[in-house]
């Protein structure tokens, strides 16, 4: 039996030590907000926090979690920063299909908790491991800026997709090649 601290609650699970945390969250505990994308730490869809740091739960054996606090998208709004990030996502109308967005929000919240006023370069570095097939990168960056500065931008003034969509597409294609699906 493994005891986990998830979103402030103690949860006991009877699972193999090497089961990835993502499987435990989704299939054993029923917290399905965290998504499966690639399963090989390449897309960021499965991002959760471990003691506040963003980690890829698809490649994290559950036994390696130990006593560290796990926060998922279901619990991130309990922190002041997480709540602001969620509100900014709504204000900026970031989401398109939504599949990647749990992971995006978790990475953004971890960044802003550690670095309340990140530069654009710091945003790019922190968010570079989170792929969005819908190309919501411009709005993601703007939402992070909103939390950092408190300044709101009207969402209708922003493009729906990254202007450099070729770069975004390239990210997706390299991801597909890694998967061997192309
Ligand atoms: S599912 Fe974990 S990084 Fe893609
Ligand atoms: S919103 Fe569709 S993959 Fe990101």
TrEMBL record:
<keyword id="KW-0408">Iron</keyword>
<keyword id="KW-0479">Metal-binding</keyword>
<keyword id="KW-0411">Iron-sulfur</keyword>
<dbReference type="Pfam" id="PF00111">
    <property type="entry name" value="Fer2"/>
</dbReference>
<dbReference type="Pfam" id="PF01799">
    <property type="entry name" value="Fer2_2"/>
</dbReference>
<dbReference type="InterPro" id="IPR036884">
    <property type="entry name" value="2Fe-2S-bd_dom_sf"/>
</dbReference>
<keyword id="KW-0560">Oxidoreductase</keyword>
<dbReference type="InterPro" id="IPR006058">
    <property type="entry name" value="2Fe2S_fd_BS"/>
</dbReference>
<keyword id="KW-0001">2Fe-2S</keyword>
<dbReference type="InterPro" id="IPR002888">
    <property type="entry name" value="2Fe-2S-bd"/>
</dbReference>
<feature type="domain" description="2Fe-2S ferredoxin-type">
    <location>
        <begin position="1"/>
        <end position="76"/>
    </location>
</feature>
<dbReference type="GO" id="GO:0051537">
    <property type="term" value="F:2 iron, 2 sulfur cluster binding"/>
</dbReference>
<dbReference type="GO" id="GO:0016491">
    <property type="term" value="F:oxidoreductase activity"/>
</dbReference>
<dbReference type="InterPro" id="IPR036010">
    <property type="entry name" value="2Fe-2S_ferredoxin-like_sf"/>
</dbReference>
<dbReference type="InterPro" id="IPR001041">
    <property type="entry name" value="2Fe-2S_ferredoxin-type"/>
</dbReference>
<dbReference type="InterPro" id="IPR012675">
    <property type="entry name" value="Beta-grasp_dom_sf"/>
</dbReference>
<dbReference type="GO" id="GO:0046872">
    <property type="term" value="F:metal ion binding"/>
</dbReference>
<dbReference type="InterPro" id="IPR051452">
    <property type="entry name" value="Diverse_Oxidoreductases"/>
</dbReference>
<protein>
    <submittedName>
        <fullName>Isoquinoline 1-oxidoreductase, alpha subunit</fullName>
    </submittedName>
</protein>
């Amino acid at each position: 039996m493994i005891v986990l601290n998830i979103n402030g609650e103690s949860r006991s699970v009877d699972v193999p030590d090497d089961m990835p945390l993502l499987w435990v969250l989704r299939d054993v505990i029923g917290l399905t907000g965290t998504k499966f994308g690639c399963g090989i730490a390449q897309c960021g869809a499965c991002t959760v926090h471990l003691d506040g740091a963003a980690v890829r739960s698809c490649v994290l054996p559950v036994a390696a979690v130990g006593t560290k606090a796990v926060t998922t998208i279901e619990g991130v709004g309990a922190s002041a920063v997480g709540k602001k990030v969620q509100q900014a996502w709504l204000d900026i109308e970031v989401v398109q299909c939504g599949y990647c967005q749990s992971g995006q929000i978790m990475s953004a919240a971890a960044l802003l908790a550690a670095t309340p006023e990140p530069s654009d370069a710091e945003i790019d570095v922190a968010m570079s491991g989170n792929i969005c097939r819908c190309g919501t990168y411009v709005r993601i960056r703007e939402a992070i800026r909103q939390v950092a500065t408190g300044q709101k931008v009207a969402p209708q003034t922003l493009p729906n997709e990254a202007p450099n969509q070729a770069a975004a597409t390239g990210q997706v294609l390299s991801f597909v090649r890694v998967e061997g699906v192309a």
